[in-house]
Write a structure and sequence with these properties.
Structural class: alpha+beta
Helix content: 25-40%
Number of strands: 16
Strand content: 15-25%
Number of helices: 18
Distance between the termini: 103 Å
Radius of gyration: 29 Å
Length: 522
């Protein structure tokens, strides 16, 4: 009887425990997975309301990193001197909630309104509750991790940057220029005559340098500082990149190397215009063509365009554009971007011929001193599949729109001019780069083929309506998963430009309209 009774008690307790366990598991299931729409909206609203009311502790407690969030939100008040803030949530898109900020900056009795847009993301926290995923960019979209906001007397005197015609360039009107003006101000403020610092809000980067000025509370007395930029071309560039996310464009004066325009979309994202490290695809065929023309190939030389081909039992290549043309000339191959035709000529560029042409004629792979930060292009050279891949702008080659705009400029001018954004004599330790000009015959043939590409080849649609002495080259290059990056370079009279559109596919369709818009404004 005792045994039976004990067994009965055990069953009752076991049933109760099972119910409790089931309830616990059910509760856990409700807290698993991404937060629901109402949880996202409510969490974002609570966080923004707490931040707006000045309750830093409560706002930070609604994040997945309360300690880091507390430090950042405290610094927002104490270091950035934000005396009032109202953050208003927008409509959530998935877990991401955009919001607008209307704040007041106050420093030593001077105040100014400050408005901007940012965004936050709501995730499921370790406790199962929805929380704001903490990132520095929640406070301000331009903040990188480790950076902070500061308001005070500016560290450098005010400079008003002017374009090549003397027009003052307002960074509010040209958002892509903000980061470059900050660099120029840091480097050259001491060389400008006069000027006193104002009261400003800026980003302190992790290394303690000023990354970018965000707001001017009291403008200092400034002096003008000339750049090579062109306000009209810059305006066109800013508008053009807005049509394609992940895009960038650079324009140059073909006779001086002066930078006429720089634009990135997003303006505050990676500086693709000057620092992209991506394969330039078939736009690099301008360099390859110059090497082949010097080796004796002419625009009228018969060079078959096969639908697919390899050389020396190497990698099999195919064409992005047309299937093939066994009656093709080299000019047709260039204008229609035939990969197989180019790789079939690999024996005409033995050893380091291609690498040397890029380096010694076009200035690629060398350190340039343009006045602001850039990343050097790379043409490593090689043999076998690496060499044939480099002939069509792939393999281990990397470049930026700045580099490829310079290639277009060199093709048009006939000689490489080191790019710059300010007067050459102002740039400290600017390297002296000695290059070999294109021969008159190579220059003439290269321009003939680039003109044919612009008028009837793969660039014709994009270049329609671009008048004057024109030449162009399209490109696309695989960069991991997704669509290839789209590339385009071209010149019109004395202006050359190049653009990239990440995952843009065909360069004529994606990057081409950006370059065309810039050239039309020149």
């Amino acid at each position: 009887m005792l045994g039976v009774a004990g067994y009965g008690v055990y069953n009752v307790l076991d049933a109760l425990n099972s119910d409790s366990s089931s309830t616990s598991k059910a509760g856990s299931a409700k807290s698993a997975g991404p937060p629901k729409a109402e949880e996202i909206t409510e969490t974002a609203a609570d966080f923004l309301a707490a931040w707006s009311s000045g309750d830093t502790a409560k706002a930070a407690s609604l994040t997945d990193s309360p300690q880091t969030a507390t430090a950042a939100l405290t610094g927002y008040k104490d270091k950035a001197h934000v005396t009032a803030v109202k953050a208003t949530p927008g409509t959530a898109i998935g877990g991401k909630v955009p919001f607008g900020v209307a704040a007041t900056l106050s420093f030593e009795g001077k105040s100014a309104p400050w408005t901007y847009d940012s965004a936050l993301t709501v995730i499921r926290g370790a406790s199962g509750k929805p929380v704001v995923q903490w990132k520095a960019a929640v406070v301000h979209p331009k903040l990188a991790e480790g950076a902070s906001l500061e308001t005070g007397t500016a560290k450098q005197p005010t400079l008003d940057f002017t374009d090549r015609h003397g027009k003052v360039l307002d960074p509010a009107k040209y958002p892509s220029l903000g980061r470059f003006f900050t660099q120029l101000r840091s480097k050259y403020a001491a060389k400008a005559s006069g000027g006193t610092p104002g009261v400003e809000t800026w980003i302190d980067s992790a290394d303690g340098t000023v990354a970018e000025t965000l707001q001017v509370i009291v403008k200092g007395t400034g002096s003008t500082f000339p750049t090579t930029l062109d306000a009209d071309i810059q305006s066109a560039a800013e508008k053009a990149v807005l049509k394609r996310s992940g895009s960038a464009v650079t324009a140059l004066d073909v006779n001086t190397g002066g930078v006429l325009a720089i634009a990135n979309n997003p303006a505050t994202g990676t500086n693709l215009a000057f620092a992209a490290t991506a394969a330039p695809g078939s736009t690099f065929k301008v360099v390859t063509a110059a090497a082949l023309l010097k080796a004796g190939v002419t625009p009228s030389t018969k060079v078959q365009c096969k639908a697919h081909d390899n050389v020396h039992q190497g990698k099999m290549y195919k064409n992005v554009e047309k299937e093939g043309n066994l009656q093709a000339t080299f000019a047709w191959d260039f204008a229609n971007s035939c990969n197989t035709a180019f790789i079939s000529q690999v024996d005409k560029v033995p050893g380091n011929t291609l690498q040397n042409t890029a380096h010694d004629v076009f200035g690629l792979g060398q350190d340039w001193g343009i006045g602001v930060s850039t990343k050097k292009s790379s043409i490593p050279g090689g043999t076998g599949d690496e060499l044939t891949s480099e002939m069509i702008g792939q393999g281990m080659i990397t470049a930026s729109p700045l580099d490829m705009a310079s290639v277009a400029a060199t093709a048009k001018n006939g000689r490489f001019h080191q790019p710059r954004i300010v007067a050459a004599d102002l740039i400290p330790d600017r390297p002296s780069i000695s290059t070999t000009p294109l021969s008159s015959g190579v220059k003439s043939s290269l321009q003939q083929m680039m003109r044919q590409t612009a008028q009837s080849g793969t660039a014709a649609t994009a270049m329609s309506g671009v008048n004057g002495n024109v030449g162009a080259k399209t490109g696309s290059a695989e960069d991991g998963e997704g669509q290839p990056n789209g590339w385009f370079l071209a010149y019109r009279d004395d202006v050359a430009a190049s653009a990239i559109v990440q995952n843009g596919g065909h360069g004529g369709d994606s990057a081409g309209p950006i370059v065309a818009a810039v050239l039309k404004a020149s």
